[in-house]
Design a protein that fits this description.
5 helices, binds nickel (II) ion, 22% strand, two-stranded antiparallel sheet, alpha+beta, 9 strands
């Protein structure tokens, strides 16, 4: 073995030890604690965030936009007052969540956006939401405004003829939007009052 080869081997060995140390140190480093702050991300796999701009009419006939609710935590769901089952259940669940949250729930603004503006006028919505909880606000608008809001939230809805009348097919996802207007999380129709309450307790100030 020449002195040159020896030196080369030594450098190689020292390099290996250093690499191993870096590995151990890296491994010993505690995992960064999971941030509880709302993550400004879309649903996994989505590239365009959920939520965003809308202009609608609230149940008192006032024009509102997404900006109207900045600073509030929003719980947004789409539906229609003639819904036989899913929407009343969602509103009932939401009223139970609000009661369970107590004063902390005041940071929260639940919005029920109709996908049936033809029948769901502001007055009609006001009576409907009031039957569930005084804090739930119903929003309607022109068909174009509803379409824009539904598009922003990736909500599917479709008019389906039913006898001489019609019903609405619609997705039943509840979105949680942070005070900065960014999507935070969502609940499915199956999430249930307990889980929703627990998650919101985690998020709300
Ligand atoms: Ni419904």
């Amino acid at each position: 073995m020449t002195p040159g080869m020896k030196r080369g081997l030594m450098i190689f060995a020292i390099g290996g030890v250093l690499l191993a140390m870096v590995g151990v140190v890296g491994w010993l480093q505690p995992q960064a604690p999971q941030s509880r702050a709302p993550q400004p991300t879309a649903v996994k796999g989505e590239t365009v965030p959920i939520g965003g701009a809308f202009t609608l009419i609230d149940q008192d006939g006032r024009t509102v936009t997404d900006q109207t609710y900045r600073g509030k935590w929003l719980v947004v769901f789409f539906g229609f007052t003639h819904c036989p089952d899913v929407c009343p259940t969602a509103l009932n669940d939401m009223s139970l969540v609000l009661d369970a949250l107590g004063p902390r729930g005041e940071a929260l603004q639940p919005l029920f956006i109709t996908v049936d503006p033809e029948r769901d006028t502001a007055e009609f919505l006001r009576d409907f939401t009031a039957a569930f909880h005084p804090r739930i606000v119903g929003l309607t608008g022109t068909p174009a405004q509803i379409e824009e809001a539904a598009k922003a939230y990736r909500v599917y809805y479709k008019k389906v003829p039913q006898g001489e009348s019609y019903t609405m097919d619609h997705s039943a996802i509840t979105y949680v939007i942070g005070p900065d207007g960014r999507f935070v999380t969502h609940f499915s129709h199956q999430t249930g009052v307990e889980k929703m309450t627990a998650k919101l307790r985690e998020l709300l100030p």
